[in-house]
Write a structure and sequence with these properties.
Helix content: 40-55%
Bound molecules: nicotinamide-adenine-dinucleotide
Structural class: alpha/beta
Number of helices: 19
Radius of gyration: 22 Å
Shape: globular
Number of domains: 3
CATH topology of the largest domain: Rossmann fold
CATH architecture of the largest domain: 3-Layer(aba) Sandwich
Oligomer: single chain
Distance between the termini: 50 Å
């Protein structure tokens, strides 16, 4: 297919769609895969706002602008196995000579020199068209819709239930703000874990999207109706999820006044970006969007003040018995800046619930069927169920996900796998492709939120026992290990999850196309990537990570 025909069919802005089937448009699956995944990230079923190339997480973009998307496509359609494309903050800037097992795309997004690494500087540069915000999987072309965070959210709620409610979330109410791309996974994760859930978002369209994708049961703009629904459901022990169209601060204030105290309270509004993410109190959505343009300085001040009030009510709820934890959006930091001096008196979800998994090299492992055929995912699910009969959590998760998760865009799956398991799964998937049991190759990737790929002192590396929270050598080593190991595309980003200045992280995606060469790359990358997590946590002094060094023969 010619370039112009391809653009017309798959990338006519703002209508993006990945090709499906097993016919190549590019020269090999090594370049067809990033091409399909870029287009999939921008598919309206997947992305929150394709017209602005925004995928999720506030303003997380897949590419700088529509011309950059076209140019990336043009290059990928003709790139051979001895060259690699360079992408600088969503714009293609060069092609370098490499070799067949090198990554085909090398991506750097939103990086700023540390002393300049803040939203003000970033906004100036963005306004001049020089950069974009890549979030984590938006700019690295491995976003798979809300499912991407679903299992992590589920694991977090289940772990919280084990720690505080004897492992039973029935008759328990979970409340959270933000029902966007990632936050929208919370209602389904909560009901899968057996709880009643209330999600509060000011934007009705975001909540509607969760209803359409099967993640949420009901929506209302009426505070009293929402309270009635959740209280009845909680009493009956019904796993119901409700979306309330409201500003989170106003909702929490009223709930506190009415003595409706959540059992678990967290938040996933896009607080990481006080200007283009969070909506301050006292404005309709439209008024807030207008103020962003008319008076960004004032907007930011109001945003920080609102976040301080937001956290104040979270702390008040904590005082009344709610289990409160931060869910990775840097709300505490901006609430602190807005005047709430006790903002850091509750912990983040990583030190509370996830770090023990990181010490085993466990993290979010995801794969996508490039064929577009859901049956390929069903076959891969079954293959994993057979390969890991002793992993009951995994089997339960895959069976539940098969029943409850509706695909967005190309069919995909996520599950948390650790050291050894990821490599084994990669080989299984490559064999499925080689033997023709599935219709086309898989891509295997992960969130940047993983055991060894991120430095983020208010999130993944919060409260490390050796105090190494802010050391960002680790994600750089992760990037280099995955580049040297032969991932199909790699990325290094700044500011994902928690905003400019607060994180640095690396991403990787590797293709299982059934070839010998892919098997070599998969084996190296899916070994090295979780190994970095074990090395990082063992170096910090975590006992289980040291044990895992021995268990997996990682001593050196
Ligand atoms: P998103 O931008 O798609 O959605 C954010 C939602 O918050 C929007 O729907 C918006 O309307 C709503 N909102 C903003 N201010 C509000 C207010 N005051 N009251 C009510 N609703 C409000 O973002 P997302 O992809 O859902 O991510 C949410 C946050 O979580 C981001 O800060 C992101 O960086 C962070 N994040 C967390 C994880 C994790 O693992 N926990 C992973 C990725 C991202």
């Amino acid at each position: 297919m010619k370039y112009t025909e391809f653009i017309k069919k798959y990338a006519s802005h703002p209508h993006y769609k990945s090709p499906t089937g097993n016919q190549l448009h590019a020269k090999s699956w090594q370049t067809e895969a990033p091409l399909r995944m870029l287009l999939n990230n921008l598919d309206h079923q997947v992305a929150e706002d394709p017209a602005n190339l925004i995928v999720y997480g506030g303003t997380g973009q897949a590419a700088r602008n529509p011309d950059a998307v076209k140019k990336i496509i043009e290059i990928l359609l003709t790139l051979d196995e001895n060259h690699s494309l360079l992408v600088q903050s969503g714009k293609p800037v060069g092609v370098v000579r490499t070799h067949p097992q090198a990554p085909r795309v090398l991506i750097a997004n939103s990086n700023l020199v540390p002393a300049w690494a803040n939203w003000e500087e970033f906004e100036k540069l963005k306004a001049r068209g020089l950069t974009m915000y890549g979030q984590m999987t938006a700019g690295s072309w491995i976003y798979i819709g809300s499912q991407g965070i679903l299992q992590g959210t589920y694991e977090t709620f289940v772990e919280c239930g084990k720690k505080h409610f004897a492992g039973n979330l029935k008759h328990k109410l979970i409340v959270s703000g933000g029902m966007g791309g990632m936050g929208g996974a919370q209602p389904l994760a909560a009901t899968m874990a057996g709880a009643t859930f209330l999600g509060i978002d000011i934007d009705p369209e975001r909540i509607e999207k969760r209803i359409h994708t099967g993640y949420l049961d009901r929506i209302t703009p009426d505070y009293h109706e929402a309270m009635r629904w959740i209280q009845q459901a909680k009493e009956k022990g019904k796993a119901l999820s409700v979306g309330l169209v409201y500003n989170i601060v106003d909702a929490l204030k009223k709930m506190y006044r009415d003595n409706i105290i959540p059992d678990i309270l967290t938040d996933q509004t896009s607080a990481h970006d006080p200007l283009n993410g969070y909506i301050p109190r006292g404005f309709t959505l439209d008024e807030a969007l207008q103020l962003r343009v008319d008076d960004p300085e004032d907007y930011k001040i109001l945003s920080l003040k609102s976040m301080a009030q937001h956290v104040k009510y979270m702390l008040k709820m904590k005082g009344k018995g709610s289990i409160v934890f931060d869910y990775g959006n840097n709300l505490r930091e901006f609430a602190f800046q807005g005047g709430e001096k006790n903002a850091f008196s509750y912990k983040g979800f990583v030190p509370e619930y996830i770090r023990p998994l990181f010490c085993e090299g466990k993290g979010p492992f995801r794969w996508v069927a490039l064929s577009g055929d859901p049956q390929d995912i069903a076959i891969s699910d079954q293959a994993l169920i057979e390969a890991f009969p002793e992993n009951h959590m995994l089997i339960k998760w895959l069976s539940e996900a098969q029943k409850k998760v509706e695909f967005q865009g190309l069919p995909s799956r996520i599950c948390w796998l650790g050291m050894g398991e990821r490599e084994k799964a990669g080989k299984i998937f490559n064999d499925l492709v080689r033997s023709g049991k599935v219709k086309a190759p898989f891509v295997i990737g992960r969130d940047h939120l993983d055991c060894g790929s991120v430095a983020s002192p208010n999130r993944e590396t919060e409260g490390m026992i050796d105090g190494s929270d802010a050391i960002s050598d680790w994600p750089l080593l992760n990037l280099m290990a995955n580049t040297a190991g032969g991932a199909t595309w790699v990325s290094f980003h700044h500011g994902g999850g928690v905003g400019m200045g607060y994180s640095q992280h690396a991403g990787m995606v590797v293709v299982a196309d059934g070839s010998e060469s892919a098997e070599e790359c998969l084996s190296r990358v899916l070994h090295n990537d979780p190994a970095l997590g074990i090395y990082r946590h063992a170096d910090a002094g975590y006992k289980t990570a040291v044990e895992n060094l021995n268990k997996h023969h990682l001593n050196f």
